[in-house]
Amino acid sequence: MRVGLFVPCYVDAFHPQVGIATLELLERFGIEVEYPFDQTCCGQPMTNSGCHQESAETEALFVRNFEKFDYIVGPSGSCVHHVRHNLDAVEQTDAVRKVRANTFELVEFLHDVLKVEVFPWAEFPHRVAYHNNCNALRGIGHSSMSELRVAPFSKPLDLLRKVRGIEVVKLARPDECCGFGGTFSVFAEGISSKMGHDKVRDEVRSGAEYVISSDSSCMMHQQGCAERAGLPMKYIHIAQVLNGASS
Amino acid sequence: MKGLESDIPIALGAGVETRPEESAASGDDSPVKNGRRLQHAEGASHPLRSTSVREPQPRGARIRGNHRVDQTEAAARFIAAPQHEKMHDDRLWDLRTKRDGQMHAIPEWEELRTLASAIKEHTLTHLDHYLDEFEQNARANGVHVHWAMDGDEHNQIVHGILHDHGAKTLIKSKSMLTEECGFRSYMARVGVEIIETDLGERIQQLDNEDPSHVVVPAVHKLRGDVAQVFATHLGIDPADDNVHHLAEAQRQATRPLILDADAGMTGCNFAIAETGGITVCTNEGNADLSANVPKLHIASVGIEKVIPRLEHLAVFIRLLSRSALGSPITQYTSHVRGPRNGGEMHLVLVDNGRSARLALDKFWTSLKCIRCGACMNTCPVYRRSGGLSYGATYSGPIGLIIDPTFNRHKYSALPFSSSLNGSCSNVCPVKINIHEQISAWRQVMAENHELTFVKKAAMKAAGVLLAHPALYRAAIATADSALNGLPRFAVYNRLNAWGKHREVPHAPRESFHSWYKRNRSAS
Q1: Measured between alpha carbons, how far is A134 from B388 in angstroms, rounded to an integer?
Q2: Do A111 and A238 touch, CB atoms closer than 8 A?
């Protein structure tokens, strides 16, 4: 199995430890992971702003970087959602279709492809709240959505329950968007920040010490709000927890 | 009318009953029956702190002719009024929660949504056929049927009917279509007095504001705001914001106008082709007053409201109020099939851009909308912005995808007032892919040069940067060193939208890329 490691641009720049944890975690399962050096971004920021034309070259570069792999795995539901559902500014060649079909978000890959049963090295003796990124939740179906009448399930919580010592608490509004929204976070900064501050307050009220998510982008936004408000919430990516981080 | 007593707080939910908790706290006027507090969707919400300092009501978007509406500017003013913002967010989230409760009580909920969507799509793709059938059957019922291309024509037709009857006063129930048509201001110009009979809509009319929500038009107002409006227009004590007193003041002022009105007008929730009848859903019974008290009844009907058969109505009635307010059904579901004895009934079927919308490949399914407002209640952006921030007839998610069809330039920024979280599409009872259409509208705006210069330039630069690995590497290095090296005032200034209400991320010692190069370069 040849796996290409997709490290989203903001993970590369701001959260390298999430990329490292993803790499190490996959290697723990004996997978040969390759990191294509020329990768930049998936094109989502431009498409998200309506500028499909402007994302075409970036998308083409993404496909060139990853077409040789059986699986492409990245620690972000939002970016994987873009690749799978919205990477359409480029001509849909066989290579493009293959890349789109083979790109997986880390939680999905562990849960659905590797079907991991245990993480013997993982212990996280903390009370945590889980933040569902909207694209991971409603875009690629990480969990059942509160708006729909379906049987409840959660892939990320399935995985976290295999971590020793962890206690998961519920948020009052578990599916509510935190307001990051990509370029929305700067083009509508007032609304975005208000949503972020409300989300952080919900997290603090839940009694959690940590918030875990599969998307660093939402957490970067929430952490910025928590720090501005002087609230002591800590944020950590699910890849780090599953890879055995203790705090 | 006795039964109405217990419905007062329910009726108030349209606008005034925004803080029933205050009345609960004062202990004398909470909606209580047989010792139990009523849990009707419109009659209850979570406690809010009351405060003695009155916060002025934030007003809506600034409208300057055909200029682009800046929703975020108006939203910022709404957020800067924390009593209003918090009440609004809690109140509408409460409706969303009650909607979820109703959904869980119906095992076949998702099938109902699928069915409702299919009925609407079938009807919309055979619209000419069903409209013809509806018209024929309505005429056979003794109803006069008119067709209007646009809002102006609608207003002229209605004016003509009123003129023929010498009617000078018109009572009407709430209708978003008449809002589209600018009906009230037209009638003011030609000297016809309009009396809105929906409580929330009447509050908005007296305050000279548009409805801020399709179902609860005054939901952005605190009870104190309503007391101010009624003090000015009905002469009550502005300090008395007891919701029952407010409702009674409105009732006393409006009932005589209703009884004396020359003509009545309603909207229409569903027009049934096989019967030629229309159905209007309200919680206040005010559509019945408008339809039945005067001898002349005029109903404005958007052409997308038609459904084929009476049995299809059941599907929509089961979904409508559950989605809208989290109540199983509206208090009144009124079926009107023809004129009352000795009376006259007119239907005005209005296009006003609907045919053109039907031809839009990516957007035609927005015509499935049954105006329940569920997408607004669930929308985290709408709840924190207030409906008037959109500066358009329709606000919230459904507004983002409908308003641009009325004026693409004026509403070109609206599709960007969304985090694209997708909750709206999930609650939609007719399964409109709202968030995908919001995204598609962004593309239309970008392709038609409707993005602001800053936005377009930023995206162009990002596109170039992200397509070239070497440029991208250099940019990341610069950004990280800037975040680490610059003094605080250089990072947090008005050019940094991120840093206005948030701290910027901590720059790591090195990027993942550098780490990988350093530690894994052999591979």
Answers
A1: 26
A2: no
Residue ranges of the alpha helices (H) in B361-428?
A: 374-378, 380-385, 396-406, 423-427
- B451 pLDDT band, cuts 50/70/90, is confident
- Give B326-356 pLDDT, tens digit per residue: 999 999 999 999 999 999 999 999 999 999 9
Whether residue B462 and residue A16 make contact (CB cut-off 8 A), yes or no, is no
Mean pLDDT of B420-440: 98
Backbone torsions φ then ψ of B265, nearest 5 degrees: -135, 140
The SS3 assignment for B98 reads helix
Can you tell me the distance from the alpha carbon of B366 to that of B363, in angstroms, rounded to the nearest whole number? Answer: 6
Confirm if B154 and B352 have CB atoms less than 8 A apart: yes
The whole-number pLDDT of residue B7 equals 32
Burial B223-251 (b: 16+ CB within 10 A, else e): bbbbbbbbbebeebeeeebbbbebbebbe
Tokens of B116: 């409702």
From residue B363, give the alpha-carbon distance in Å to each of A170, B387, B424.
Answer: 37, 22, 15
Q: A12 near A147, Cβ under 8 Å? A: no
Q: Give per-residue pLDDT as tens, B285-299.
A: 999 999 999 999 999
Phi, psi of B388 (to 5 degrees): -75, -15
pLDDT at B4 over 90: no
B48 pLDDT tier (thresholds 50, 70, 90) = very low
Q: What is the pLDDT of residue B39?
A: 52
Q: What is the mean pLDDT of residues B313-318?
A: 98
B210 and B393 Cβ atoms separated by less than 8 Å: yes
Q: A168 vs chain B: nearest CA distance in angstroms?
A: 22
Q: Which residues contact A242 (CB under 8 A, 6 or more apart)?
A: A21, A25, A110, A119, A122, A159, A160, A163
pLDDT at B41 over 80: no
Choose among A233, A181, A190: nearest CA to B501: A190
Residues of A in contact with B417 (CB under 8 A): 188, 191
Is the pLDDT at B27 greater than 70? The verdict is: no
Strands B270-272 and A167-169: unpaired
Q: Are B336 and B389 in contact, with CB atoms under 8 Å apart?
A: no
Q: For residue B506, which residues of chain A lie inside 8 Å, CB to CB?
A: 14
Nearest-CA distance B77 → chain A (Å) = 10
CA–CA separation, B409 vs B67, rounded Å?
A: 8
Distance (Å, rounded) from C-alpha B231 to C-alpha B236? 4
Residues from chain A that touch B425, judged by Cβ atoms under 8 A, are 138
